[in-house]
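Figure S7 source data.
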Amino acid sequence: MSKLYKEIGIGFVPVLLIFLAFVGVNVVPLLFIAILGVSLFYMIRSRGGVGVSAGGGDRKSKNRTPSYLTFDEIGGQDRAKRELMEALDFLIKHDQIQKLGIRPLKGILLTGPPGTGKTLMAKAAAHYTNSVYMATSGSEFVEMYVGVGASRVRDLFKEARTRAAKEGKESAIIFIDEIDVIGGKRDGGQHREYDQTLNQLLTEMDGIHTNDAPRILIMAATNRKEMLDSALLRPGRFDRHIDVDLPDKKGRLSILDIHVKNKPLAEGVSLEAIAEQTFGFSGAQLESVLNEAAIYALREEKAEIEQHHLASAIDKVMMGERTDKEAAIEEKERVAYHELGHAIVAEIVRPGSVQQVTVSPRGKALGYVRHNPPQDHYLYTKDYIEQQIMIALGGAAAEEIFYGGRSTGSRNDFEQALSMVRNMMDSGLTSLGIMDREMVTKEQLMKENAAILDALMHRTKELLDRQRTVFDHSFDILMKEEVLSGETFRKLIDSHIAESA
Ligand code: ATP
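Tokens for the predicted adenosine-5'-triphosphate complex:
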């Protein structure tokens, strides 16, 4: 029908213009306005539109992703899952809730680093509550045109209600990833478009009532909670906050167990060892480790994934792919001394901690040492941080001992060292005592920083100077093999200690 009107319009407009020109009316301005109007209409429509049917094919099909995921398919995160399920019971036991006069739960905010399973949680929540699942992301509401984002929010809620009715479901879960994009603090200034979008979201949330059918729950994810406007976080809106943190060792093992299910592992492969070596990895990185390991096995035409495939996959995820950068021999030698510097300090201050020393370039690094964290740490003593700084300074110290000067290769190490010194200062572990940065001058901070780093650099050089034989022996192996395993390295250190005893 609309097509018919369009065709009549296309025929009618030129006839009208010819008639007006014929009777002496100047049609040029009219023509100009018409062209402008039509191009504006098509431009807005192609960007998602402002009408009821807005949403665009792509977005709609993304929203329609069916959700069959259960909480069992999310590894670790036991506390977050428990808190979320408790909150979701509000949606399920709505009769009881209504009887007691409890206001409905409207919004749940999931916070945590990227790749920790926030999206998975929202999908599992939809499954658990037998709800329609709609997903979108904050960035999808961002438009140049004022009002488009707000209209998309309206459409989203409307579509959730329509779909729930169509599919015979009593509730709908709307998941908004990266909510900070639209939910940042309103300044009433330049970002009027964001403000309008956020206002619309708040209005829609205020319009959710307990006895409405279908019941709507909004789940949102962010890794920058402090950026959010307080209006979003106040009671009655996103008043349930659930932290979805990086997994601990047990969590990592259960994530690996989930993702290994469709992958053949060779006998003797220890996922527990992988969980131990992947401190600080997110669920998404762990999934990637298993995937990359399978790709390495395929490259070697192996039917099963072996432990060394997994070890290479950890390096790949941590540092990036091996590069073909062919360094000059002098440069490679310097890298070898630099990495051995890190490794020797690490092994002496924390025996058993070096997993592997490598001098083949990977990602941006020319060489690297993989460490074995003893166990997950959340609390650090002054001694521990100082040792950590010495490990970071070990590379530059070795270059100074063997070449008399440093290179640009220590830049990252120094950044790490500086951030650890900052941590020490902020935690009251330095001679500045318990302090706030406002209380001390920049000069005082610089002086303290230099004193700490100079003293630790001195200790590191002294320590390394006593290990010249270890350097000599491991240097030859490293230059020949490019890789030195933790065990071989430890044997070299032990034999040197026995020799010098
Ligand atoms: P972002 O903040 O970047 O959107 P996210 O926290 O929403 O990330 P997800 O999209 O849920 O992360 O996770 C990405 C992928 O990582 C998942 O598809 C899954 O393969 C894997 N993953 C992450 N966490 C877990 C987990 N706890 N259990 C199993 N798999 C996980």
